[in-house]
Design goal:
By secondary structure, this protein is mainly α. Helix content is 79%, strand content 0%. It has nine helices and no strands. The chain has helices spanning 2-32, 37-54, 62-81, 91-110, 116-125, 133-152, 154-162, 164-169, 174-193. The longest helix has 31 residues, at 2-32. The protein is globular and about 55 Å long. The two termini are 29 Å apart.
């Protein structure tokens, strides 16, 4: 039993950290009605990591992480720019399209690599059971910074999440605050997938 507890201590602590920030961000996601944005941003991040892999970087290298993060920020910009005051097409539809395109592109990119199938499996499954203390500390610090940013920007972020029409009417820069939300959310998702 002691061996089991020792083995599962790091994944358990990682899960506690992940749960805290994801629960908070999930409240914003539900209020905004963009339920699948986490999947889309994770898939965009996975696409970025596969591009880094194709360019010769290790799938879990810093360079691949930065490429994944850059792709995630592009996805955040797309989601922020396409939020309209009176939407013609639901934003969730665009999120689904981004997810599908990123997933298909990831498969196409990895099909060019000899070990692409195994890398794709590892990218989709993750490695939470094998997380180490340095990774846990890094994620804790990163999520703490994201939490502080969200605390500092809580009023406009909550206003936009809970009543976007009123936020537009009050003159809030909705697209800017949306980008901040999606970018920090993407940062969390990218780090979680990593």
């Amino acid at each position: 039993m002691t061996e089991f507890l020792t083995l599962m201590m790091k994944p358990f602590v990682a899960c506690l950290i992940l749960t805290g920030i994801h629960a908070y961000l999930g409240l914003h996601v539900i209020e905004r009605g963009v339920i699948f944005v986490d999947l889309a941003l994770a898939q965009v991040a996975a696409f970025g990591a596969t591009v880094g892999f194709l360019w010769g970087f290790g799938l879990h290298s810093t360079a691949s992480y930065l490429i994944a993060l850059a792709c995630t920020f592009i996805g955040a910009a797309i989601f922020a720019a396409t939020r309209l005051r009176k939407p013609v097409v639901p934003q969730e539809a665009l999120i689904g399209i981004v997810y599908a395109v990123a997933a298909a592109a990831s498969i196409l990119v990895l099909s060019r690599a000899p070990e692409g199938g195994e890398e794709l499996k590892g990218l989709l499954v993750g490695h939470l059971l094998f997380v180490g203390w340095p990774e846990i500390v890094q994620v804790f610090l990163l999520y703490s910074v994201v939490g502080i940013v969200h605390w500092a920007a809580r009023k406009p972020l909550l206003a936009i999440s809970q009543n976007p029409e009123s936020a537009f009417a009050d003159g809030l820069r909705v697209r800017w605050w949306d980008f901040l939300f999606y970018a920090t959310f993407g940062l969390v998702v990218t780090s979680s997938v990593e």
